Amino acid sequence: MDLFEVIKNRHSYRGSFTSAAVKRDDLTKIVEAALAAPSGKNAQTTEFIIVDAPELLGQIQQLHPGNKAMHTAKAYIACVIDRSPEAVYEGFAFEVEDCAAAVENMLLAITALGYASVWIDGWLRVNNNADAIGELLSVPENKVVRILLPIGVPAEKYQQPAKLPFGKRAFFNKYGK
Ligand SMILES: Cc1cc2nc3c(=O)[nH]c(=O)nc-3n(C[C@H](O)[C@H](O)[C@H](O)COP(=O)(O)O)c2cc1C
């Protein structure tokens, strides 16, 4: 798939996954895409935990009440950042942005390899869920699981929802033109 096709085909997948495993080589490729992402001051702050051990998959699935993708994932990638991000440029920290850039690279790699995923963020922020996942994955106290990606081969057909037209959100040279 050409890059622009991958961008168009990427979508948030909340359906069931098939029983097919996610190959270790593919998980490595996906995280290599994350490692190649830009980061503020090239500080490379985001760390990644790749989960494919059946016992851990089951434990994560028990914690999440929500979508089928979270319940049937054959692997997860947890993106970990510092709980108190350090300023790297003029008093500014960029860890959340670093993490988001890495996650988008991974979502594109996941799509290109024929898998699907969804950006799990909101659920981690409520009811100490990020801490519960962090504990399962031995994340140190000073770090937090900021985003979780359930991964597998999609069993259902989903597609990217319609986006607003170009002229509504993008302009040449001056805002609104
Ligand atoms: C910052 C951010 C947080 C998100 N958090 C969640 C989430 O917690 N759960 C979820 O199911 N989807 C989450 N999503 C996915 C969005 O709902 C999704 O991208 C949006 O509905 C557009 O659909 P698309 O990804 O298929 O284009 C998140 C996306 C972003 C960028």
Order of helices and strands: HHEHHEHHHEH
* Mass-distribution shape: globular
Give the low-confidence spans: none
- Spatial arrangement of strands, main beta sheet: 1-2-3
| Count of discrete domains | 1
Which compounds are bound in this model?
flavin mononucleotide
Number of separate helices: 8
Distance between the termini: 33 Å
**Over the alpha carbons, how many angstroms does the gyration radius reach?**
17 Å
Q: Short summary of the structure?
A:
The chain has 8 helices and 3 strands; from the N terminus they run H-H-E-H-H-E-H-H-H-E-H. It has 177 residues and is an alpha+beta fold. The protein binds flavin mononucleotide.
List keywords for this structure.
NADH Oxidase; three-stranded antiparallel sheet; binds flavin mononucleotide; alpha+beta; globular
Structure overview:
This protein is of the alpha+beta class. The protein has a single domain (3-157), classed as 3-Layer(aba) Sandwich (NADH Oxidase), CATH 3.40.109.10. Helix content is 38%, strand content 12%. The protein has 8 helices and 3 strands, in the order H-H-E-H-H-E-H-H-H-E-H. It has a 3-stranded antiparallel β-sheet, with helices on both faces. The chain is globular, with a radius of gyration of 17 Å. Residues 11-12, 14, 118-123, 160-161 line the site of flavin mononucleotide. Residues 11-12, 14, 118-123, 160-161 line the site of flavin mononucleotide (FMN).
